[in-house]
Amino acid sequence: MEAVVEAIDLERRYGETVALAGASMTVERGEVFGLIGPNGAGKTTLVRALTGTTEPDAGSARVLGTKPNAVDRDRLGVLPQDFSPPDRLTARELIDYYAGLYDDARDPDDVLAAVGLADADDTWYENLSGGQQRRACVGSILVNDPDVLFLDEPTTGIDPAGRRTIWTLVEELAAGGTTVVLTTHDMAEAEHLADRVGLLAEGQIVAHGSPDELVAEHGGSSRLTVETTAGADAFGDLEYPVEQAAPSHRSTRMDTVVVRGVMPAEISTVVDYLEARDLEYTGLTWAEPDLEDVYLELADDAERDRTANTEDRTATTTLNVGETA
Questions:
Q1: Which intervals of the chain are annotated as region Disordered (predicted)?
Q2: Which of 104, 298, 71 minimizes the C-alpha distance to 204?
Q3: 71-116 per-position pLDDT tens digit
Q4: Considering only CA atoms, which of 103, 151, 154 is closest in space to residue 131?
Q5: Residues contacting residue 232 through CB under 8 Å, at least 6 positions apart
Q6: Tens digits of per-residue pLDDT, 244-271?
Q7: Domains assigned to the chain
């Protein structure tokens, strides 16, 4: 099957800053491809290269069988991260305006209903909530019923109910054959929506695959989080690996440890260990690895490689200077 979206060894520099350093990816028809990665990894630059708004310095890109800047715009929908419509247009006027740009546009009423704004259609954009504004933006790129959608952080600022509305909409579009490329910092969003995920780091896609494949390969073992003032050293003779937990989205507490590789039926072993040693604890939480674990593992690896390469270059420069002197 021919790829609908394809990037081959894309490179892009802005002065001394390397935004893309050989990024490659393919997306098939009806597939949802999620791009994840830290800020500055090159996600937005990659999307711009694929939509024809940025010309790469090297490599090639094709969308719907042609160069991105030659694609029929009626077949493309692009939602930039910083899209901001006029404040004094109502939600309906905004959708009507974009519908008027196409010969065969969707019914604005259908679009408003699809993004959950049917009851706020006469509200000025500036008076919509942040989440409603983002829904209106999503609606504005759906009026032409595009074959390919590029969504850069589509649910930023949207409340949980609104996020679910957008997720359902993306799923329905993909089921109907629309190809979707989305960037996100929300690992739950990537795990829920994406058929495949690509992790972009230092301008390259360092890993890609289905969420399940990535978790199986890079996610590590299950974890039992123990809320306790006892440090990891207090678990020295426990049969499972134990580490001090750092704050994350799951917990902002510093007084927690993580016990690795514990299965649900084995939790009682850890409880018995705590009680036998009078180690006080206030909670236990068991979880399987997920896409956030993959992200943290691979992003950390990329950062370690970047730091090592920087140190190597610094050492080489210092040596050369010394030799010259």
A1: 304-325
A2: 298
A3: 998 999 999 888 889 999 999 999 999 999 998 899 999 999 999 9
A4: 154
A5: 242, 243, 244, 257
A6: 876 554 454 557 899 999 999 999 999 9
A7: 5-216 (3.40.50.300), 221-287 (3.30.70)
Read off the amino acid at residue 236.
G
- In single-letter form, the type of residue at position 248 comes to S
The candidate with the shortest Cα–Cα distance to 43, out of 69, 25, 66, is 25
Rounded distance between C-alpha atoms, residue 26 and residue 275, angstroms: 53
Strands 148-152 and 76-79, by their bridges, are: parallel
d(CA 223, CA 258): 6
Check if the beta carbon of residue 33 is closer than 8 Å to that of residue 184. no
Per the CB < 8 A criterion, the answer to whether 178 and 30 are in contact is yes
Contacts of the segment 22-25: beta carbons below 8 A, 24+ positions apart = 22/59, 22/203, 22/204, 23/59, 23/200, 23/203, 23/204, 23/205, 24/59, 24/205, 25/198, 25/205, 25/208
Predicted TM-score (pTM) of this structure: 0.80
Residue with tokens 């509305």: 165
Which is nearest to 193 in space by CA: 165, 168, 220, 159? 168
DSSP state at residue 139: H
Low-confidence stretches of the chain (pLDDT < 50) are: 249-250, 252, 310, 313-317, 324-325
